[in-house]
Structure prediction request, 467 residues.
Amino acid sequence: MTDAPVVTRIAPSPTGYMHIGTARTALFNWLYARGRGGKFLLRIEDTDRARSTPEATEAIFRGMKWLGLDWDGDAVSQFERADRHAEVANQMLAEGTAYKCFSTQEEIAAFREAAKAEGKSTLFRSPWRDADPSTHPDLPFVIRVKAPLDGVTVIRDQVQGDVKVKNDQLDDMILLRSDGTPTYMLAVVVDDHDMGVTHAIRGDDHLNNAARQMLVYDAMGWDVPVWAHIPLIHGPDGKKLSKRHGALGVEEYQAMGFPAAAMRNYLARLGWSHGDDEFFTDEQAIEWFDLDGIGKSAARFDMKKLEHLSGQHIAATDDDALVPEIQAYLAAAKEPTLSDADAQALRGAMFCLKDRAKTFPQLIEKAYFVLADRPLEMDEKSAKALDDVSRGILAQLTPQLQNASWNRDALEEVVTHVAEANDTKLGKVAQPLRAALAGRSVSPSVFDMMLVLGRDETLARLGDVTA
Prediction:
C-alpha cells in the first residue's frame, strides 16, 4: 500500500455552488498528489437526482479551473456507476458478508420506539441477518452489510490519530435499497477502490463514516486508504462557516476580485501550517505540504488575512499575468471587460497600481486615471480640490511642464518650484493636480500618473480644468 503511487480525489455533490470548504479539501488533495508525483482525481457525487443539477456540476468545474486545481483524466459521475455498485453489493451477498433484509420502515420504527421505551439501544438489529434463505418471502428487500457484533474498529487517521469505534455501535448499514439503487456509503467505497484512491483526505464530518465504510473494504478484501480527516472551517466567531459570515461559494471570491494564487495560499493556511510561513508560492506549497502539518482544531476564516495575502500576491505577480486575470475577474463580476487598448494602458500603468491594491476592484479604482476618457468625471473630493486658487496654480504649472524633461526627477522639480513660488507646500499643489489628472482622490502618485499619461495627455487634462 505504501509503495503504490499516490492517488487522491475530491468528490463534491453538484447540488449548489462550490463551497469554500470543498475548495480547501480539493486544494489539500491536489497539493498532496502533486508533491509526490501522484494523481489527483475528480468525482461528481451526483446520485441525489432530485438535487443534482448540470448547472451545479458546471459551477464545480469553473471553481476548480479558476483555482488552478487541474485534475487527471475525466471527471467521474457516481450516478453512471450504479450498476458497478450493485454488482459489489450482490457479490457481498453471495459471499455471505451481506444479507437480504425484508423489514419494513414501520417495523424498524416500532423496534426503535420499543427500545427507547425500555432504555435500550435503538440501533436496529435485523431479524433477517441469520435467517435461512428458504424462509425469505417474495417481498421487496434491502441488502445490508453484516457488521461485526463485538470487538473494536480502529480508524488509523493521519490527522486525528487512532480513533476507536466499538463494533456494537455499528449498524448493519444498507448497501442497496429496495429499488436496487446503491447508498452513498457503498458507492463511495466502490468508487474509491476502482479509482485506485490511496489517500482519502476529507472533512472530519466524515470521520464516523470511515468505520462503516471499512466494513465494505474488509468484506471485499480491499486495501483501506490512508485516512486523513481534516477539521472544518469556522467563521470568526468560532461557529460553523455559514452565509451569515459572508461569501461561501468559490466563484463569489473570484467575483469579489481576489486572485486565484491568493486564494490557494490562504486556503492552504486554513488548518495547515509550515512553520511561521504565511506568504508562499504554489511551488513552495507543493514542496512543503504534508499531512502532519494539518492541525486537529477547526480553522477560522479571516477576511482581513485573505485581503492582506491578496495584496501581497497582486504585488508579486508579473504585470503580463495580472491583466488576463483582471479580465476574468471582470467577467465573473458581470462587469464590462477591457478593450485591447484599455488592457494595454492598464498593463503600462501596472507599476504604480499594484503595490497597495488588496483586490482587483481596488486596483481598477486606482486605474481610473488611465482608463477614463476626457473630460474626467470628478468625485466630490476632487471637485472641492479644484477651487479658484488651485486652478490658478495649475495654470502657472502648465507652461512649465510643456518644456520639462519627462522623467520623474524633472517633473518633481517643476512642481516643487511652482509650489515655492506660491509660498505653499508640494502637497498643496499635488492635491489639485491629482484631481485634474485622475478625477479621484484615490490614485497613484501624481508623478507616476504623469509618466503613464505622457506629456500631451497630461497637458490636455490640465487644460480641461484651467480653461
In short: The chain has three domains: 81-230, 245-348, 380-466.
